[in-house]
């Protein structure tokens, strides 16, 4: 049964450990790097960027993309620097007006109770964060002090808006929601509806839905054009048969995303043997709108040739229990072997399709059974 208390089912982590034990572990080929890691991070390093000033033209996005430690340091330093700057300005105003000298009772200062830089710094903090302890206050004696007060309030509001917006965007980033969108560890290739298909399984661990969820696939591999140009990362789109028959998927329970390997597929010429010796990578992108926040989220993963299982299919995970449907996530990544031709889809179409293949396999199977029965000792004729 599913865990009704937590978001992540109790057996899910155990399932992932069990998958690591039951499924064979594949090592990446020497010299072959993944374009997208299993957790969705892009394995791309940007080097020799000369126009670094472009990042400063979009300061807000740059602040959001920074690490939390750097963001907190900038958050703290922005307030401290503004307080120190305006504290120095208030001290200069008091010094220019003579407020730092001890005068008589008839003297009216620009700001009361400012006798040093420390008191000017404290007054700067009181003005910007609107504390107002009551001991220090501005008077109508100096017009410049009134203008500085207005400017500091505006600057403080701008800093608050930028930094608080940055903190909010970092805490509500879309990739946090993607942590509960899961993909099967392996992809499979098998026969489905008399067609050779490439399939993966996706699921959502949360009860809150992903609205207008869509799935896209791409094959990334090294290709050479007819003119001899080498494209190291050629991205080729893969057409998919949506399991619900519309543009979006209804991701309430785990779904199997299927791609029919036809003549327009980049996998059309691959056989079971060629797949293990071909450097290809299938990238899967799941996009949708988070129901609770309205923010668009994206989850990614990839499958290299060693992670594509030929001749297997996923086991069912949904069952009906006590008048409701239950999803067993312990079977999320489990597969079983099924009869599948080892040749490519191109050769399969040339041979007459899956129906002809099944017919030939049936004739071969019956012939082999007859040979075994004939060679059995009980069916041998006794020697004369």
UniProtKB/TrEMBL annotation:
<dbReference type="GO" id="GO:0046872">
    <property type="term" value="F:metal ion binding"/>
</dbReference>
<feature type="domain" description="Potassium channel inwardly rectifying transmembrane">
    <location>
        <begin position="36"/>
        <end position="173"/>
    </location>
</feature>
<dbReference type="GO" id="GO:0034765">
    <property type="term" value="P:regulation of monoatomic ion transmembrane transport"/>
</dbReference>
<feature type="domain" description="Inward rectifier potassium channel C-terminal">
    <location>
        <begin position="181"/>
        <end position="350"/>
    </location>
</feature>
<dbReference type="InterPro" id="IPR013518">
    <property type="entry name" value="K_chnl_inward-rec_Kir_cyto"/>
</dbReference>
<dbReference type="GO" id="GO:1990573">
    <property type="term" value="P:potassium ion import across plasma membrane"/>
</dbReference>
<keyword id="KW-0406">Ion transport</keyword>
<protein>
    <recommendedName>
        <fullName>ATP-sensitive inward rectifier potassium channel 11</fullName>
    </recommendedName>
</protein>
<feature type="transmembrane region" description="Helical">
    <location>
        <begin position="72"/>
        <end position="93"/>
    </location>
</feature>
<dbReference type="InterPro" id="IPR003279">
    <property type="entry name" value="K_chnl_inward-rec_Kir6.2"/>
</dbReference>
<keyword id="KW-0630">Potassium</keyword>
<keyword id="KW-0472">Membrane</keyword>
<dbReference type="Pfam" id="PF17655">
    <property type="entry name" value="IRK_C"/>
</dbReference>
<dbReference type="InterPro" id="IPR016449">
    <property type="entry name" value="K_chnl_inward-rec_Kir"/>
</dbReference>
<dbReference type="GO" id="GO:0034702">
    <property type="term" value="C:monoatomic ion channel complex"/>
</dbReference>
<comment type="similarity">
    <text>Belongs to the inward rectifier-type potassium channel (TC 1.A.2.1) family. KCNJ11 subfamily.</text>
</comment>
<keyword id="KW-1133">Transmembrane helix</keyword>
<dbReference type="InterPro" id="IPR040445">
    <property type="entry name" value="Kir_TM"/>
</dbReference>
<keyword id="KW-0597">Phosphoprotein</keyword>
<dbReference type="GO" id="GO:0003323">
    <property type="term" value="P:type B pancreatic cell development"/>
</dbReference>
<feature type="transmembrane region" description="Helical">
    <location>
        <begin position="143"/>
        <end position="168"/>
    </location>
</feature>
<dbReference type="GO" id="GO:0007399">
    <property type="term" value="P:nervous system development"/>
</dbReference>
<dbReference type="GO" id="GO:0005524">
    <property type="term" value="F:ATP binding"/>
</dbReference>
<dbReference type="GO" id="GO:0015272">
    <property type="term" value="F:ATP-activated inward rectifier potassium channel activity"/>
</dbReference>
<keyword id="KW-1015">Disulfide bond</keyword>
<keyword id="KW-0812">Transmembrane</keyword>
<dbReference type="GO" id="GO:0005886">
    <property type="term" value="C:plasma membrane"/>
</dbReference>
<keyword id="KW-0547">Nucleotide-binding</keyword>
<dbReference type="InterPro" id="IPR014756">
    <property type="entry name" value="Ig_E-set"/>
</dbReference>
<keyword id="KW-0813">Transport</keyword>
<dbReference type="Pfam" id="PF01007">
    <property type="entry name" value="IRK"/>
</dbReference>
<keyword id="KW-0479">Metal-binding</keyword>
<keyword id="KW-0067">ATP-binding</keyword>
<keyword id="KW-0633">Potassium transport</keyword>
<keyword id="KW-0407">Ion channel</keyword>
<comment type="function">
    <text>Inward rectifier potassium channel that forms the pore of ATP-sensitive potassium channels (KATP), regulating potassium permeability as a function of cytoplasmic ATP and ADP concentrations in many different cells. Inward rectifier potassium channels are characterized by a greater tendency to allow potassium to flow into the cell rather than out of it. Their voltage dependence is regulated by the concentration of extracellular potassium; as external potassium is raised, the voltage range of the channel opening shifts to more positive voltages.</text>
</comment>
<dbReference type="InterPro" id="IPR041647">
    <property type="entry name" value="IRK_C"/>
</dbReference>
<comment type="subunit">
    <text>Homotetramer; the homotetramer binds four ATP molecules (one ATP per subunit). Forms an heterooctamer with ABCC8/SUR1; one KCNJ11 homotetramer interacts with four ABCC8/SUR1 molecules. Interacts with ABCC9/SUR2.</text>
</comment>
<feature type="site" description="Role in the control of polyamine-mediated channel gating and in the blocking by intracellular magnesium">
    <location>
        <position position="160"/>
    </location>
</feature>
<keyword id="KW-0851">Voltage-gated channel</keyword>
């Amino acid at each position: 049964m599913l865990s009704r208390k937590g978001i992540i089912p109790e057996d899910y982590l155990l399932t992932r450990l069990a998958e690591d034990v039951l499924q064979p572990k594949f090592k990446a080929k020497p010299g072959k790097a993944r374009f997208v890691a299993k957790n969705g991070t892009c394995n791309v390093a940007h080097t020799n960027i000369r126009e670094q000033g472009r990042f400063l033209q979009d300061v807000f996005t740059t602040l959001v993309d920074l690490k939390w430690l750097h963001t907190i340091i900038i958050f703290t330093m922005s307030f401290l620097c503004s307080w120190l700057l305006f504290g120095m300005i208030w001290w200069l105003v008091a010094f220019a007006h003579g407020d730092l000298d001890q005068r008589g009772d008839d003297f009216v200062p620009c700001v009361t109770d400012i006798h040093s830089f420390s008191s000017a710094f404290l007054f700067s903090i009181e003005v910007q964060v609107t504390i107002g302890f009551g001991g220090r206050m501005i008077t109508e004696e100096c017009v410049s002090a009134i203008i500085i007060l207005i400017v500091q309030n505006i600057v403080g509001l701008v800093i608050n808006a930028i930094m608080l917006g940055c903190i909010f965007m970092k805490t509500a980033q879309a990739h946090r929601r993607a942590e509960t969108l899961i993909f099967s560890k392996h992809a499979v290739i098998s026969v489905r509806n008399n067609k050779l298909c490439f399939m993966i399984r996706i699921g959502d661990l949360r009860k809150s839905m992903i609205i207008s969820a869509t799935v896209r696939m791409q094959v990334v591999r090294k290709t050479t054009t007819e003119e001899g140009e080498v494209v190291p990362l050629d991205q080729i789109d893969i057409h998919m048969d949506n399991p619900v028959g519309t543009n979006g998927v209804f991701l309430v329970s785990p779904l199997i995303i299927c791609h029919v390997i036809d003549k327009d597929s980049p996998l059309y010429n691959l056989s079971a043997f060629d797949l293990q010796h071909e450097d290809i990578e299938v990238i899967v992108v799941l996009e949708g709108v988070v129901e609770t926040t309205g923010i668009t989220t994206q989850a990614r993963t990839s499958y290299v040739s060693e992670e594509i299982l030929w001749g297997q299919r996923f086991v069912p995970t949904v069952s009906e229990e006590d008048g409701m449907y239950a999803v067993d996530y312990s079977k999320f990544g489990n597969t079983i072997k099924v009869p599948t031709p080892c040749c490519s889809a191109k050769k399969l179409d040339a041979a007459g399709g899956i129906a002809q293949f099944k017919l030939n396999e049936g004739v071969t199977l019956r012939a082999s059974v007859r040979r075994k029965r004939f060679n059995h000792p009980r069916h041998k004729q006794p020697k004369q």
